[in-house]
Amino acid sequence: MKTFEELGVAAPILKAIQEMGYESPMPVQEEVIPFLLGEDNDVIALAQTGTGKTAAFGLPILQKIDVTRYQPQALILCPTRELCLQIADDLNDYSKYIDNLKVLPVYGGSSIESQIKTLKRGVHVVVATPGRLLDLMNRKTVDLGTIKNVIMDEADEMLNMGFTDSINAILAEVPPARNMLLFSATMPQGIASIMKKYMKNPKEIVIGNKNEGNKNIKDIYYMVRAQDKYLALKRIADYYPNIYGIVFCRTRKETQEIADKLIQDGYNADSLHGELSQAQRDYVMQKFRVKNIQLLVATDVAARGLDVDDLTHVINYGLPDEVESYTHRRGRTGRAGKTGISISICHVKEKGKIRLIENIIKKKFEKGVMPSGHDICEKQLFNLVDQIEKVKVDEEEIATLMPQIYRKLEWLDKEDIIKRVVSLEFNRMIDYYKDADEIQEVDERSARSERTERGERRSHTAEEGFSRFFLNFGKTDGLYPNQLIELVNKCVPGKVRIGKIDLRDSFSFFEVEEGESQRVMDNMNGFEIDGKRISVEPAQGKGEGSRSSRGGFGRGGGNSRGGGNGGSRGGYKGGGGYKGKREGGFSGSTSDRRNSEKPWRRDTSDRNARKKRY
Ligand code: AMP
């Protein structure tokens, strides 16, 4: 292996990177640095994030800058504001000992005027997101005629984000006699056309095999039923007490929902997605960077460019729609030579996607075995013991209290004290997990039988995105599915999407979209039909609540995670639900109605006729 010096890196840069702790070049640097230090050398490099690519292109381009000429000489294009700032920061660090070298990040969402002012004063390196750069070009405030090196970082991401036209417009303004370097984690068709159009005999550098994932990342999947996904997520988080990771969700809505649930259940989590303002996103990212947050629930787009090197885990809460995105997700862990775990919590329907991803990363997933309650308790317990060993004792502050404490505990021997200290935490965990149902992992066969069973016995759980309700009218009241739909629509103003309907003799269940739950209850409860008041309430069998009333540790108390209230315990809140109502509510009234017509046609047709009794 060569040293940075042997690769040709000059003294001022060497000094800076040594201070940053770069002892020897990473493979991509060994390949790219000497080549880029030469003239007219185009490179296309297939490398994941975290492989050291910023220094690979950053060191040679900085070295080639003529600081006496205040003109843009290097242009770096990247997909996101975060990555833009990160690259600019890195370049500033590398050029710490090169006097007067100016790097300017230009990106959307910040004042264009101040970027224009800096450009007027003169800069050497422009790091830009394509949209904002094009805007500056259109305002004639930046001239790319003096550019000698163009770098496209995360080129596949830029294409995914729809920047192809902007990139073409930008590259058309750069003089043809320039070096061009393109970094990409994957090699979609669009990259090949850019290569053909703008690059001259590019040297192809592949770090690892083409499209192959990092070897130091373990890919594990858990196949669970849709309604168990969140429980599985919590088990995984509980099983790795020191987890520091990103939970990827597919939509903004799902991201917010999962983050809210985790926070409510006492986990140290927060959300990152496009509906947050830039300031909110910056705030969350900063909290995550400094590890004030352990689990960041994010969409793919929002997490792009997040520069965190020491993630222990990436969790895919379902696989991404675009299988290529998996490469980017998993690339957030196992960076800079560290190991990482990419966990996918998937549904049996996603099995095909796993095979596709395996083809892309050229690696097999491991099938994970969901940790049992016992495994989790053991893991958490030893983590606690570990913390007891490592805790820093403030000798001075505690000294005055110790005699009293010794006196109080002197009747206990050492073993007893240890058992008691540990039990403070252990009892709580055991309480959560001892009666919890184990999460059923599914394979295709069990999924099929689950589906059959669902058809025969009817599920007690709501479909994803829906809430299940109990209604105190059933078949013996003459209720049919279409009448139930009519009833809901008559009672509730506006349109309500109704999901599964499950009619029983004297009562029924129906589902409505989750967001509509409150409105449906508010509007239906209070109607009377032939003197019988409608009662609609959440069915207990909804989601996880019916299976396991203990989802995870409600963090807080003595737990290291902080956050959370000691009392919140997973999704299930209370055990009332329909059961209690059914026992108390139906027996008399339905029998009287057996022979009656379908009364809702009469009474609910006129909203004014409803009697609100409470
Ligand atoms: P990048 O792929 O450029 O985002 O780099 C990933 C991480 O590796 C960053 O934290 C870099 O600071 C770090 N890094 C890059 N090159 C080296 C090196 N030669 N030695 C140690 N760390 C490095």
Automatic annotation (TrEMBL):
InterPro entries: DbpA/CsdA_RNA-bd_dom, DEAD/DEAH_box_helicase_dom, DEAD/DEAH_RhlB, DEAD_box_RNA_helicase, Helicase_ATP-bd, Helicase_C-like, Nucleotide-bd_a/b_plait_sf, P-loop_NTPase. A motif (Q motif) lies at residues 2-30. Gene3D superfamilies: 3.30.70.330, P-loop containing nucleotide triphosphate hydrolases. Residues 591-608 have a biased composition (Basic and acidic residues). SMART domains: DEXDc, HELICc. This is ATP-dependent RNA helicase DeaD. It comes from Parabacteroides faecis. PANTHER family: ATP-DEPENDENT RNA HELICASE RHLE (PTHR47959:SF13), ATP-DEPENDENT RNA HELICASE RHLE-RELATED (PTHR47959). Residues 34-205 form the Helicase ATP-binding domain.
